Amino acid sequence: MLELRHAIESLSAYYAASRRTESDIEQIRTCYKRLIVSHSRQDAALEAKADANFHLAIAEASHNVVLVHVMRSLFSLLRKSIRYNLENVYAQTGRFEHVRDQHYHLMTAIINGDPDNARSASDRHIDYVERVLIDTDSQRQREARASRRALGAITL
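Given the sequence above, the corresponding structure tokens read:
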């Protein structure tokens, strides 16, 4: 899912920065604010929906009918994927602030009409999430091996 998001959201960000309207800017800002508020409520489902809505608003600002259609058709899967990602990314403290700042930089590049920076901000965001998920999975595998070794040592 992250590979697909990488492609779609990168294009969406680029075209959103090129084609956004004042109405689009207001919608993206509103979605960003909802995303921040939803995090404070500590409701993973609500936050995942707000995050997905933020990315959908960016796709809509691209004014590319096919990109919007693809994002809308994937919305349920996107929301579930984001929820899984958030639960794993936020497992360590300080990561929410990093993701929040990534969303902010993405929004700002779009508002400022900077397509290349918007695409880069989108790419950095997805790359970060992917990297954290890989690191988290590796850590879980190390912990599982350590637990198995510890159990083996106890039974000897």
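DSSP finds seven helices and no strands in the chain. Try to locate this feature in the token string yourself.
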